Amino acid sequence: MKLGRTSKGYMCLTAFEHELEGDCKGTKVYPSLEALKETHKCLDQCGIVEVEVKSIRVVQEADYSVEGIADRMFAPIYKFQRLAGAWKKDTFLCSSIAEIEAHPSHRGIVEMGARALPLIMVSLENEASIRWFGVLCEITGANPVPVEDRGRVAKMRDHWLKWWAENKEHYASV
Question: Is 99 a residue whose pLDDT tops 80?
Answer without folding.
Answer: yes
